[in-house]
């Protein structure tokens, strides 16, 4: 059984956290969410399903992903079953619909575009959200994280190689094992 992938999740969460410096609005009131659900008839904007145990319910899905500075606000969310939300990942929503539900894609894209037209949203950029000094600090943090991540990945690789060699050596007869 494979591990929990904490290393890759850490990277995702740090990068997402850094983006929240730029686009901090990650909350939708219960009333706002209820209105979004009502606009889509309580169904998934992508597949049209209602909440079920099989699809693990209906959740807000970012149209502009957090990784692209999208916020959890009306105008940037649609209801999605957890199955669609998980399968979409970071794919652009139009591309996801066209690839996953080609027969229904045109109608669903039109419906989401109508929603977007009523609830205008534009993602923030670091340049438009931060002062020049803050932008320098932000960009510095991004560079520092990338450096730290590269060093951590290098160490992770070395440790994995050492463990692999040790495991392979343990299956050899003592006479064939190298001295280390």
TrEMBL record:
It comes from the Bacteria. The keyword Nuclease applies. CDD domains: HNHc (cd00085). Pfam families: HNH. Keywords: Endonuclease, Hydrolase, Nuclease. Residues 31-86 form the HNH nuclease domain. GO terms for molecular function: endonuclease activity. This is HNH endonuclease.
């Amino acid at each position: 059984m494979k591990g929990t992938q904490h290393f890759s999740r850490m990277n995702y969460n740090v990068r997402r956290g850094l983006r929240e410096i730029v686009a901090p609005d990650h909350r939708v009131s219960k009333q706002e969410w209820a209105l979004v659900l009502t606009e889509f008839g309580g169904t998934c904007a992508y597949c049209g399903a209602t909440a079920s145990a099989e699809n693990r319910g209906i959740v807000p899905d970012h149209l502009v992903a957090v990784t692209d500075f999208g916020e959890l606000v009306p105008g940037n969310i649609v209801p999605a079953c957890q199955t669609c939300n998980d399968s979409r990942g970071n794919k652009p929503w139009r591309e996801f619909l066209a690839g996953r539900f080609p027969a229904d894609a045109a109608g669903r894209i039109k419906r989401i575009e109508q929603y977007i037209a009523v609830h205008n949203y534009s993602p923030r950029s670091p340049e438009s959200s931060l002062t020049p000094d803050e932008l320098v600090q932000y960009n510095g943090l991004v560079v520092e994280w990338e450096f730290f991540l590269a060093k951590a990945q290098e160490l992770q690789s070395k440790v994995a190689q050492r463990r692999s060699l040790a495991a392979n050596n343990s299956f050899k007869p003592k006479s064939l094992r190298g001295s280390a």
